[in-house]
Design a protein that fits this description.
heterodimer; A: mainly alpha; MetI-like fold; 11 helices; B: alpha/beta; Rossmann fold; Translation Initiation Factor IF3; 2 domains; 6-stranded mixed beta sheet; 35% helix; elongated
């Protein structure tokens, strides 16, 4: 009897595991299939290389280069800003602060809370700040907002990475007379670069794909942004605007834009994988 | 010539004493071995010499460590300069995540050495000193992690030598290696001791016998005995040392009678001690605590010449010392 029950138990959990895995894979395939099938019709060279021309949103000539460029500028800038802040935070938490320091624990807790804040809240926060300083919706305002959105994720990812660095490695560097900063930058960052890059990539992916935070802050324009203080188009908003229209050709272009965004993220993942393999050569 | 002078050093870990009142002088350009059973504080003592212990949390260090007469725990001391002068070879080789070349060049670069030519020279010279040059000269650019464990340890030695230290600390540096690699490291130490002061921690007595010129024996955080190797191994003075060297279980002495002596005039003090011996039976143990270091030698000598056996004499406080002696039947 007992034997049987154990078998049933195991069978049940095996089925559950396989089922859950299949659902995940199937969703991914379905999402990709939807955007590929629906977007392929509207996908052409013009989509990638042209900005919207007159009547684009009614089905006429043009492409979404404005949004592609805008998204890269915006997410790129935001990611750099977030990196400039996350790196020092992670190094402070792991190399300089004592292990159970109250400050360090409070910083970690704050980052966890910020991580959970929905992006529309960042958008609203960005808008408030913008209005306070009398700024208009612009590339810079969008960058700052998206940087704030990316920061908790990136800082905590880096924090977890640096936490795993073995004591012996730090000691080896200290024993040669290196100080904490030299040890951090020349040894620890080098050792963990692939993992740190993964954190940066995850944050970039979140930044480039997020619509709510840029909705109020970055604005939208049919032109490629040429100034930090002018508005910038982004792919998520381009998708949103095109899918909203009742015109089927424009809706298809919305899917084509989604396909472009997905491909960008895929390409970046691949690049980082290659980089990881390259840097891994020397890690110990 | 004294190179490292340890005065009254105590180390507390989370409030618990790990090392108590250690006082010892480490000779220059000799190999000094720190021996003792596991957990006696060997590595702790070693890591106070380059202030690596500072990096550990919950550690409090009291007392003085002088290297070349300079207090390395003084406020204005730059810890990176201490570690440049006093290198450490760890138990397990920990190569840095970079090429063989960069591992050796890392230290010199940190300390401001620039220029390809100079660095090339430094790398070659120190890889040769560590006996690794021939094996790696054709693949200096390949990752250090690709070397065998034994080669990695020699790379760590080369890397440590490249910052031109005066002292090399070795924390059981051969224990993770195969016998042949271990022997290679030992041979390097024998060569290096002409120019460097080497302090090694080992739990292998034979290794200490082979290499050491001077020996320090720790037991439960206390310094029990120290002296030139020959004398230490051939004529250990105290019962605990004798027990450890012969592989016997070390017993804590059961104290039968105690005497806390405020030291005054020596012959009067000695009379009190003799009276106390009169009150115990042969085989029983008397512990005398004195408050002056100079009294220890004289008094131990007199007790021994009375025919009793000194079990140990150790520092227990800033100024107080303990002499533990067993009463013997007088051999006439």
């Amino acid at each position: 009897m007992g034997m049987n029950w154990r078998k049933i138990e195991e069978f049940f959990f095996k089925t559950l595991m396989i089922g859950a895995t299949l659902i995940v894979i199937a969703s991914l395939v379905l999402i990709l299939a939807t955007i590929v099938v629906k977007g392929a019709k509207a996908m052409n060279w013009d989509m990638l290389t042209k900005t919207p021309e007159g009547g684009f949103y009614l089905g006429k000539e043009g492409g979404v280069l404005n949004a592609i460029a805008g998204s890269f500028y915006l997410a790129g800038g935001a990611t750099v800003m977030a990196m400039v802040l996350s790196g020092p935070i992670a190094i402070y938490l792991n190399i300089y602060a004592r292990k159970r320091s109250k400050t360090a624990e409070f910083v970690r807790f704050s980052l966890d809370v910020l991580w959970g804040v929905p992006s529309i809240v960042y958008g609203a926060f960005g808008l408030t700040i913008m209005l306070y300083f009398g700024m208009k919706a612009s590339l810079l305002a969008g960058m700052i907002t998206v940087a704030l959105l990316e920061l908790p994720m990136m800082a905590r990812a880096m924090d977890e990475v640096l936490r795993m660095v073995p004591h012996d490695l730090k000691d080896a560097s200290y024993c040669l007379g290196a100080n904490k900063l030299e040890t951090s930058l020349r040894v620890i960052v080098r050792q963990t670069l692939p993992a740190l890059m993964t954190g940066v990539l995850l944050a970039f992916g979140r930044g480039i794909g997020d619509a709510a935070s840029v909705l109020f802050t970055a604005g939208f324009t049919d032109y490629i942004p040429d100034s930090l203080f002018g508005p910038a188009a982004t792919l998520p908003l381009a998708i949103f605007f095109q899918l909203q229209t009742p015109i089927p050709e424009v809706q298809d272009r919305g899917y084509a834009s989604a396909l472009i965004l997905t491909m960008i993220i895929l390409a970046i993942s691949l690049v980082v994988r290659l980089l990881t393999r390259w840097f891994d050569r020397n890690s110990v | 010539m004294v190179h490292i002078d340890v005065q009254n050093l105590s180390v507390y870990y989370k409030g618990q004493p790990g090392l108590r009142n250690i006082a010892v002088e480490i000779p220059r350009n000799k190999i000094t071995a720190i021996i003792g059973p596991s957990g006696c504080g060997k590595s702790t003592l070693l890591k106070t010499f380059n202030r690596l212990l500072d990096e550990q949390e919950g550690i409090r260090i009291k007392g003085t460590v002088l290297v070349d007469g300079e207090d390395i725990y003084a406020d204005k001391v730059d810890v990176t300069q201490v570690r440049k002068k006093v290198g450490l070879l760890a138990q397990r080789p920990q190569v840095l995540p970079m090429s063989i070349y960069d591992n050796v060049a890392y230290g010199p670069r940190i300390h401001g050495v620039r220029g390809r030519k100079r660095l090339d020279g430094i790398v070659e010279e120190h890889l040769k000193m560590a006996g690794l040059w021939e094996e790696v000269k054709d693949r200096l650019k390949s990752p250090a992690s690709g070397l065998s464990i034994g080669q990695q340890q020699r790379l760590c030695l080369a890397r440590g030598l490249a910052v031109e230290p005066e002292v090399i600390l070795a924390d059981e540096s051969t224990s993770a290696l195969d016998p042949i690699s271990a022997e290679t490291i030992e041979r390097r130490f024998m060569e290096l001791k002409n120019d460097y002061t080497i302090v090694m921690v080992t739990h292998v007595l034979r290794q200490a016998r082979r290499l050491a010129d001077y020996v320090i024996f720790l037991y439960m955080g206390r310094l029990i005995e120290h002296g030139p190797a020959q004398e230490f191994f051939d004529h250990p003075k105290y019962a605990k040392t004798q027990g450890y060297l012969s592989g016997r279980f070390i017993e804590e002495h059961k104290i039968d009678r105690e005497l806390d002596l405020k030291c005054g005039e020596f012959s009067a003090d000695m009379k009190i001690v003799r009276d106390e011996f009169g009150k115990i039976k042969p085989g029983q143990i008397l512990r005398v605590t004195v408050d002056r270091e100079e009294a220890v030698g004289e008094m131990s000598g007199s007790i021994e010449s009375d025919g009793h056996r000194i079990l140990e004499a150790k520092r227990v406080g800033k100024i107080s010392w303990e002499i533990v002696a067993e009463k013997q039947k007088r051999i006439k």
